[in-house]
Structure formats: structure tokens, C-alpha cells
């Protein structure tokens, strides 16, 4: 079953709209964990949570069968977003889901640089040269061992 939900601030009626194919309780715990840590992607939701966390509740807005297409899920989620946005009660920062934001590669690169990771051309070359002739993982060793064991048992 697919659920379109609203993480609603009962004191103002504003809500963060989302969609999940999983269990609604688990999704609420995921949001709560991010909000308590101050790391939620929606700044509006985070600010509302910081003001009055005890007033938030998960509200099921709509349920659909699990077989429904991604396009239908997206349309229903957008429908609910528009309902709340029309009343100026939407806490979502963006109106997209089920896809990466348009600036995702730039955001990822910026994050790597901010965390101190900046590989140089020289380090990339060293890394690629070090990998020449090596199998691409541990699977090759396991496979060779299994073959040897089979031959030994004959």
C-alpha cells in the first residue's frame, strides 16, 4: 500500500507532505530522527519543529494500492501539496520527490569540498594506476578458491 501523508503542525495547521510505500510509523520515526538532530532537508519544517515539536502529528491523507505507478503517486502527492500551498500552509521546501533535484551533482561536489575531500588529478592517476591488473573485488578470490576446492575433491 502507498500512503500520501502530512506531517502536520497541529497548532498552525501547516504540513509537510510526503509519500511512502513503507510503513507510515517507520517514516514518522525517520522524520523525527532528522528533526531532533536538526538535519531535516526542509528548513520550514525544521523551524516549525524547533518552535513546537510536541504539536506535530502524522496524518494519512490518502492511500493507494501498491501496484499504482510512480506517475500516479507523484500526481496525488502534488495534489495534496497544492491544497496546502493554496492556503499557505505547505512546509515542503520544494515540490519534487521521486527524482533528484536539478542541482544534485553541484550540491554533491560542494559537499565533498566542504568536508575536505578534494582529489587532485595526480591522486586520481595514482589511484587508477594502482588498480591496473587487480580484480574488481573479493569475488574473484572466492571464485578461485571454490574452483580449487572442487578440483581437490575429485
Describe the structure.
The protein folds into two domains: 2-102, GIY-YIG endonuclease (3-Layer(aba) Sandwich); 121-153, no CATH class. The chain has six helices and three strands; from the N terminus they run ββααβαααα. The protein has helices at 24-37, 43-51, 70-86, 104-114, 121-130, 139-153; strands at residues 2-9, 15-20, 56-64. A three-stranded antiparallel sheet has the order 2-1-3, with helices on both faces. The model has no long low-confidence stretch (mean pLDDT 83).
Q: How many structural domains are formed by the residues?
A: 2
- What is the strand content? 5-15%
Strand order of the largest sheet: 2-1-3
Helix content: 40-55%
> Overall 3D geometry?
elongated
Helices, by number, come to: 6
Biggest sheet character: 3 strands, antiparallel
Instruction: Write down the Rg.
Output: 24 Å
User: Would you report the number of β strands?
Assistant: 3
**Helix/strand-derived class?**
alpha+beta
Low-confidence stretches: none
User: If classified by CATH, what would the architecture of the largest domain be?
Assistant: 3-Layer(aba) Sandwich
Cα distance spanning the termini = 52 Å
User: Mean of the pLDDT scores?
Assistant: 83
Query: What is the name of the CATH topology of the largest domain?
Result: GIY-YIG endonuclease
What's the CATH first level of the largest domain? Alpha Beta
Amino acid at each position: 500500500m502507498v500512503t500520501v501523508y502530512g506531517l502536520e503542525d497541529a497548532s498552525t495547521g501547516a504540513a509537510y507532505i510526503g509519500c511512502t510505500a513503507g510503513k507510515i510509523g517507520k517514516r514518522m520515526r525517520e522524520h523525527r530522527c532528522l528533526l531532533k538532530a536538526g538535519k531535516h532537508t526542509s528548513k520550514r519544517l525544521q523551524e516549525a519543529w524547533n518552535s513546537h515539536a510536541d504539536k506535530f502529528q502524522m496524518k494519512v491523507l490518502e492511500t493507494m494500492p501498491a501496484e499504482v505507478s510512480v506517475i500516479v503517486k507523484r500526481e496525488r502527492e502534488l495534489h495534496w501539496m497544492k491544497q496546502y500551498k493554496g492556503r499557505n500552509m505547505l512546509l515542503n521546501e520544494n515540490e519534487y520527490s521521486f527524482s533528484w533535484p536539478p542541482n544534485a551533482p553541484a550540491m554533491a561536489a560542494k559537499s565533498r569540498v566542504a568536508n575536505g575531500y578534494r582529489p587532485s588529478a595526480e591522486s586520481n592517476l595514482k589511484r587508477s594506476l594502482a588498480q591496473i591488473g587487480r580484480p574488481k573485488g573479493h569475488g574473484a578470490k572466492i571464485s578461485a578458491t571454490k574452483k580449487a576446492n572442487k578440483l581437490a575433491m575429485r
